[in-house]
Amino acid sequence: MKEHHRTIIIGAGLSGLYTAWQLKQQNQDVIVLEARERCGGRILSIAHNNNRYDMGPAWVWPQLQPRLEKLIDELSLNIFPQFINGDMLYEKSASEIERINGQSSHQHSYRLENGNASLIDALLSKLSNDTVHLKTQVKSINTDSCNIETLRDGKVCEYSADNIILALPPRLLLQNINISPALSDTTIEALNNTPTWMSAHSKMVFIYDKPFWRDQNLSAEVFSHYGPLSEIYDGSPANNEFFALTSFVGLNAHQRQQIEREQLITSCLAQLQRLFGEQCLNKIDIKIKDWGTEKYTTTQLDLNSPMHHPQYAGDLPRSFCNNKLILAGTEVAREHGGYLEGALESADEAISLLNV
């Protein structure tokens, strides 16, 4: 039997869940379809004991992100400043490491207590248990009838809606969902030309029982042109039960595919030893997340994406088919593309476009 809802949101990341919560507050009939076994999308906080470490986006900037600041306040969540006390390191080569006593690039950066997944957890707590349908992969959408065909636990399930909000990366939409009648060539080109945020990155977190870098008057902030880690910072939780070095792998997606996990870990630990000394080898745990291997994040086009933050022009069409299909997600934000603020910004615009 086909389920019908006034609004169906595809994608249970921050943008999708925030949109669902806003509509629920208006007593609207809405559900969220999510292909993964979990919510959050690129927001992923992996646990070690009672602490969580962000493997996706980690920082918030309340003074620059009014929507996010308001949401954090509404959800009664707590933030704490990024640790920046001490000197920075600049690694030019294996033998040339410069110590810099200067202003950190993260002077105004904050993090959420217990990870950014706290945002997801709090939003889910505001929704009824039947709002989000996990492990439900959307296979096709008919824009004439607003029918949606999905695959759930190996079975075909059908839905229909008055409005469909596509809260997922534009390239992923084209790669994974068959839309009929077909979108125009101009629209397809615009969607394909929009890089997927985080898809180029791989993050590694090294967990310790002591912050040995702080004892050396180091902030743990490192920029390296040698690698394999290109950026490192102090990723310790707010409660100081454990301590962590969080890092970005400086290899592109194709290079990462050519190296074994243990080989990568060995090379990264050798770099940390150059930077901080032998104490870095006494790790308690290592967490790794390569977003380039995530089929519900990264497309083939994204494997060639540059590793710097993409530039989002904000000129994508926001809706199709007389507003029956509406785009959301951080990539389509007009001002804050590629940030959590952008996910909320695009959700607000999607809601304003609904046929209600």
Task: Describe the model.
By secondary structure, the protein is α/β, with parallel strands linked by helices. The protein folds into two domains: 1-43 and 116-196 and 294-356, FAD/NAD(P)-binding domain; 77-112 and 200-292, Polyamine Oxidase, Chain A, domain 2 (Alpha-Beta Complex). Helices cover 24% and strands 29% of the residues. The chain is built from nine helices and 20 strands. It has helices spanning 14-25, 66-74, 117-125, 170-176, 185-192, 212-215, 253-257, 261-276, 340-353; strands at 3-10, 30-33, 45-48, 51-54, 79-81, 87-91, 97-100, 110-112, 132-133, 136-142, 147-152, 155-167, 178-180, 202-208, 218-224, 229-234, 243-249, 285-290, 319-320, 325-328. The strands form four sheets. Strands 1, 2, 9, 10, 11, 12, 13, 19 and 20 form a nine-stranded mixed beta sheet that branches. A seven-stranded mixed beta sheet has the order 7-6-15-16-17-14-18. A two-stranded antiparallel ribbon has the order 3-4. α1 runs parallel beside α3 and α1 crosses α9 (340-353). The two termini are 25 Å apart. The model has no long low-confidence stretch (mean pLDDT 95).
Mean pLDDT: 95
CATH homologous superfamily designation of the largest domain? FAD/NAD(P)-binding domain
The overall strand count is 20
Taken as a percent bin, the fraction of beta residues is 25-35%
- For the record, the CATH architecture of the largest domain stands as 3-Layer(bba) Sandwich
Kindly provide the name of the CATH class of the largest domain.
Alpha Beta
Shape: elongated
Order of helices and strands: EHEEEHEEEEHEEEEHEHEHEEEHHEEEH
Instruction: Tell me the major beta sheet.
Output: 9 strands, mixed
Helix content: 10-25%
Number of helices: 9
Which class do the helix and strand fractions yield? alpha/beta
* Distance from first to last alpha carbon: 25 Å
Query: What is Rg?
Result: 21 Å
* Oligomeric state of the chains in view: single chain
- In CATH, the topology of the largest domain is named FAD/NAD(P)-binding domain
Low-confidence stretches: none
Q: How many domains?
A: 2
